[in-house]
Every structure is written in C-alpha cells, then in structure tokens.
Amino acid sequence: MSGYLESVLVLLCINTVLAYGAFLPMVAGQLNLGVAAFVAIGAYSGGYLSQTYNLPPVLAALAALLVAGLIGWLVAFPILRTRGIYLALATFALNQVVQGAILNLNVVGGASGYPVPAHIGFPVVAAFSLAVVVAIVALFHTRFGISVTAVSDDEGVADLMGLSVRGLQTAAFAMGAALAGLGGALYAHHFNYIEAQNYGVLFSIYVVLYVLLGGTQTVYGPLLGAAVFTLLPELLRGSAAWRYVIFACLIIAIMSLRPQGVLLRKSWFSR
Amino acid sequence: MLEQQIVNGVMVGSVYALIAVAFTLAIGVLNFLNFSLPGLFMVAGMLTWYLLRAHIAWPIAAVLAIGSGALLGLVVERFTYRLMARSAHFVPLVTSMAVLILLENLVLIAWGSDQQRVPLPFADVSWHLGPTVIAVPQMIGLACALAAVACLDQVLKRTRVGRGIRTIAEDPQTAALLGVPIGRVVPIVFIVGGLFSALGGFLFALNYQQASPFMGEEIALKGISAMVVGGMGNVWGAIVGGLLIGVVETFSITWFGARAVDIAVYGLLLAILFVRPTGILGGVVRQQRM
Amino acid sequence: MVLEVRNLSKSFGGLKVIDDLSFSVARGERLALIGPNGAGKTTVFNLITGVYAPDAGSISLEGRDISALPSRFRIRRGLARTFQNIRLMAHLTVLENVMIAQYARAPGIASLLQPLGFGRGNRWRGEARAALAAAGLERYADQPARGLPYGVQKRIELVRALAAAPRVLLLDEPAAGLNPTESEALHLALDAIARRGVTLVVVEHDMQFVGRLCERVVVLNFGSKIAECRVAEIQADRRVREAYLGADELAA
User: Fold this and answer.
1) In the predicted model, what is the mean pLDDT of residues A223-244?
2) Does residue B282 lie within any of the structural domains?
3) What is the pLDDT of residues B219-234, one digit of tens each?
4) What is the distance between the alpha carbons of residues A205 and B275, in angstroms, rounded to a whole number?
5) C75 to A162: CB separation less than 8 angstroms, yes or no
6) Which residue of C has its CA nearest to A157?
7) Whole-number Å distance between alpha carbons of B98 and B91
8) What angle do CA C151, C152, C156 make, to 5 degrees?
9) What ipTM goes with this model?
10) What total of structural domains would you count in chain A?
C-alpha cells in the first residue's frame, strides 16, 4: 500500500475515534468544544510515557486513554454544573487553558513541538479504531443509549423516572474525553510529531461539525462524518483552503435542510 | 509603567468590547451565539488593508469596510439563521461556526495566509501624559467604540425598533403576539452586530496596522470571554468585559510572558462561568424552564 | 398509610404556595386532590416527587421518610407520576419512552449496560411492547413520541409510569383535554390499575371523573387544605363551593 493511501486511512481511523469522542457528550446534550484539549492531553501524555518510561507505544496509548478519561472525569464536576451555552463556553475556555498550559510545558517541547519516536503502524491504529466502533455500537444496544438521550431531552423528567442524570452526564463526558485522548495518542505515535498549536478551538469545531454532519441520531453518524471529512479533500484534489470551503458549505446546506444530520434514525434499537 | 499598561490594555480592550457588544446583542435578543461575527471582523480588517493599500481615501475605505459588516450580517441572517431558527438550539451556533470557517478560507484563497501590513493613512500622532504614551488613532478608536455603544444604548431605550428588540429579548412569542414585526427586527439585530464587528475590524487594522485571515479566529474567543465576563445580554457589560479582558491580557503578557495569556484570560472566563455566570454587570439570558 | 404528607410548607420568593398541608393516603385508596387553579396541586406533586425541597414538613412513603431523598430514588421505591403538560422524550420512540421507566425496577450499572438485543435484555423490550399492546397502543411503538395525537400521548405517559411498577401513582390532570370516549377509557384503565392494588392520587378538575373514580377527596385552596371528605359529601361542603365559586356568589 502506498504511503500516501496509508496516511489517509490512518487519518480516517483516528478521525473516527475522535468523532466518537465528541459524539458521546453530544448525545447526552453537551456541546463539547474542548474536545481538542483532550486530544492534546492524550497525545502529549502518551508521547511522554512512551519516551520517558520506554513504555511500548500500544500501552502508552491505553494509558493516554485512561489519563484523558480521568482528567475528563475530574473536570466534569465543575463543568457539568453549567448548562447549554454556558457549558459550551466553559468547555471552550477549558480548551484554551489546556492548550496554553501545554505551550508552557517545556518538558514536552512547549511551543516548539514534540517529537514522539515510538511508532504505531497502520494495522494497530485500524485495530484500535475498529475496537472503538464495535464498543460504541454495543454500548448503544444497551439502556445507555436511550438513557443519555432521555437526559438530553428532558433532564427533569429523566431524573423523576429514576435515571441518574449526573452520573450519565459525567460518564458521557469522561468517556468522550478518554476516546479523544486515545485518538490523540494514536496520532502522536503514528505521525511521530505533535504541536500544541494545532489543538485549539478550531480543531474542536471541526470535529463537532463533522459529527453533526453524519448526525448524532445513529451510531454510524460519526463514522460517516469522519469519512466525509477525511476523504473529501482526496476526492477533490484542491488546496486545503478549498476543502474547508466545501466542507463549510456542506455543513451550512445540511444544517438548513436536514439539521439532524445525514443519517436519521427511528430507534436506537431498530425493529 | 503601570499606567502605560493600563492604557494599552484599555485600547486593545475597546476593540474586544465592540465584538463583545455584537455577540451580546445576538445572545441577549436571539439566544444565539453567533460565531460568524468574528468572521465579519476579519473581513472588515482585510478589506481595510486592501483598500488602503490601493490608496483609496480612508473615509471611503471606512464606509466600505464597516458597510461590509452590515451586508454580510444580513446575508448570514437570510441564508442561515432564518432557515434554522426552529431547529435544535445548537444548529444556528454550529452553522455560524461553518460561516466563520467559510469566510476565513475564502480570504485565504483570495489573499494568502500572510499577515498584512496596513498602511496608515494619516500621521501617527501620540499624546504624552508624563511617561505614558497614548496613540491618538487608538484614542479615537476608543472614543468611537464608546460612542457607538452609547448610540446603541439610546436606540434600544428610545426608539421603536429598540423597544421591539428588547421585547423579543424578553420573550419572542409574546413579542409576536404584541405585534412586533419580528421579520424586520431580527435582521436589524444582525446588521447592527455586523456593523459593530466590522467597526472593530477596521479600528484594529488601523491601530495595530496589521490584518490577517486568522484575526477572526483570534478575536472570537476574546470577544466571547469579554461578553461572558461582563454579563451576557448586557451591552454595557460588554464594554466592561472587553476593557477588562484587554487589561488582563496586557498585564499577563508583561508579567508572565506571551504564552501565559491564554491561561490568564480563559482562566478568568472559566472562573466567571463557575462562580458568577451572570457576569460582572449581570446578564439577561433566557434559560430553559422546568 | 402508604403516603403521608405532614405540615408541608413551601414558598417561592416570599409567596407561600403551600401552607402547612397534611393528608394521608391509605394503601389501595383512590384519593382526589382538587381545588381551583393556582391552589398548588401540581406543586404538591412536585414536592412529593422531589422536584422541590419543602421548606418545612415531611413526606413519608410506606412509613419511611423521603423528604430529603433525591427524586430518582423515589420512583425506585415505588412512587411514579404523570404530568399535566405531557412530558415524553421527543427524541425517543414510544417504546423507548416506556422502557426508560423500567430502569427504576432494576437500577445500577449492570442493568444500564445489559445488552437489549437478546436474552434477559430482550425481556424488557417484550414487556414494554406488551404493556403498549394492553393499552391498545402497539401500533405507535416504533414511532417517535413527538407529534402523536394528544390523547395518545397521554395514554403513553400512563403506560410509561406503570412500567416502573409503582405502588403509588400520582396523576396530574389525567382527563384534561380528553373527549368523552377517551375519558371513559381512561376511567376503565385507572379503575383496573387501582384494583390491582396500586394507590392512586389524582389531581383533577373534572368533578364527574373524580366522582366516579375516587373514594375520598382533599380540597386545596391557596396552598392549604380546606376540606377532606368522602366524594359524595363534597358538593354539600360550603367551604369547597366558596373556594370554587367565590363567597359573593354564594351569598347572592
């Protein structure tokens, strides 16, 4: 397989993992504009662990998942006391703070970028992303899917119906953070170089937008969104800027015509 | 030294305040976080550079650049907000983000990614108050910003349009029942927001003599922070928030280095969101009811 | 006494909405809670289910004090309710809406993560579908809850509340907006539920409906109890008529 094609497929796999990282909080009604922060946390902690402690990169990636998830869980406590637009703003302030903090951490290169020598090849990246997709599909065949949707639709009634609203919201946020971290670590170990400047709010916005493109109503929506976002430029052969122009126009068109996203569903468990 | 920093902070803060006012108007009246506004800021700034470089007289450049904000604001209203006002709450927000991305990339294609130097159309005069230097263009910018907000404040309080806007902010359904012509008032909110953003872009380009396709991205977050800190939906709060953010930014650059700015500014935003989400002057945002 | 409310008080911003209210409900009883608009009936339900915390007084369910218990635990202890304005989840199907309430019978992570496609998990789906069928609603099972006719949504809410297998069921204006046929069907349904042993507390304006279904009545006005008696005695009670009609009208 040519190096170029492989890079595209790796990006597709990683973008899929990131998409599910944004998808989980979104199904629970949380617009997480701080996804990039957790991607960065995963990338940097994974890279740091594999370099400094000579951890095998696969273990480093798993550790990065746990670190990002743990930080997501801790951050969820204050952040989930806000709602709606305040929540979106808090997550994006968080993104800036994390990015700023990393830029100041010279032990991981600060503003000059961080090389990560240990390598994870395409097959392993693909395996990870496949595992994530399978896990999410399985998860949404349990009560979890309808429960978080209920919490998103009507918190008050969900509470009265016996659901643990805070627990579900925190779980969705933390698991989303963990997946974002995993995606970051996979990127760091495949492309072997990361720069904190890339993990700003615009990164989060892109992820959120392509998840919304596919739609948050089905489990496969994020996959579709990631695929469109990753493969569109390859099909269009143009400069990077044109790719984003088309992407933006696509989003505007879809949001005006079909705001639920491309894939509609009737039920979390069909039939 | 301290006074100079305060002065610098206030000057840059006045630009943030203008964006914050545009944001706060959209949030307060339409419950809509309009991410396209920083895009309008950027387009106005880049237009300012382009026109001044082409030796167009600066008053004309000003009218064109600031006018572009009004025009684009209207376009955004007509082709996005109007179509999706009834959808889930985040749909207009997300679409406005797409508009920002669209504008940024179109400008990138047209003019490249370099930061451009904006020629100054008049002499660079400064006042000296003791050891403190105040650039006159910046002073005029601050005065413009304050005047614009004072104008807006009066319009909101005294004119029929202003009352219509405030009624919609209270409750859109009641407003409709009371006969407020929503179809005409809502576009005005977008136009005013666009004007304020574009004014900010024009002043920024002139005062700091720089414009780049990324200036929208950079100002977005500061404008939003300023809005929240001052109180969402509160126009004077936007001024207070903007000036405060400008000062905090200037101080942290001096004392902690440029890299600490993000932590300081957004740390402040986070603190406000957790401790006093209604902001310093108290905001008025429609919440969902049980 | 399966449900006891003692000296309950609640104020909102200086306005006393519930004032030293006490009443009890016996197991298997059908109690009606009536009163003019604004008397505080829905507020009482909100206090009992934990939406608001009382300023004073206590609430006991089956002898145990639940005044400080978070809402989600109250339904797990057998206290379910329906809502005056229908509150179904818009983005879930009818079947999924009903299944949400099942969680109260088997809360916990294991239950949350149990696969619903097969085995024991499938049982929950089957049960929800059967409940809808018993109510004559099976054809709506896989449709989104939003957009269905008002009468249908009301019935779905009832099925949902029952899916939690409650011992006490609070019904907030269940007959509001129903035509006579639907009202009759509702009466039969509630009668059957009560005969299975479920205690009913019904807030209603439709006095005929109350008269047929319930045994005892508590009358509220301005947040306090002004009368408590058997259904038949209500019409004779002067205080009640005053509350509804106004003292002047009676004097005339």
Assistant:
1) 82
2) no
3) 888 899 899 888 888 8
4) 26
5) yes
6) C87
7) 11
8) 120
9) 0.88
10) 1
